[in-house]
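Async update (no meeting this week)

Hi team, since we skipped the sync, here's where things stand on the single-chain job. The sequence we agreed to prioritize is pasted below, unchanged from the tracker. I ran it this morning and attached the output directly underneath so nobody has to dig for it. Comments welcome in thread, and please keep replies under the output.
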Amino acid sequence: MPVTKTAIREIRVAERRKKRNKALRTKAKSDITRAEKAIFSGGEASKQAVTEAISALDKAAEKGMIHRNNAARRKARLVKKLNKAQASTPKSEPAK
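Output:
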């Protein structure tokens, strides 16, 4: 157990940070899952979902919740999945 006032204060600060970090990390993970489901189900909502997931990852990396390279890797994988899904869907031919 902490003895000094400073140590006790630091414990309280760490708890506040822990709660904030957990919320941001959870949101990023949830957004990634939501984006992947949207990609695999197909549709126009997938681009929007990927954009939200990328934004959440950027915010988490900016605040130091995850490493910036970790965020970049996750974003790259998401966009790669999106591009692959869009390439596999047949596009309607333009009217002549």
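Quick observations from my side:
The chain has one domain: 5-86.
Residues 5-86 form a domain with the Methane Monooxygenase Hydroxylase; Chain G, domain 1 fold (CATH 1.20.58.110).
Reply here if anything looks off.
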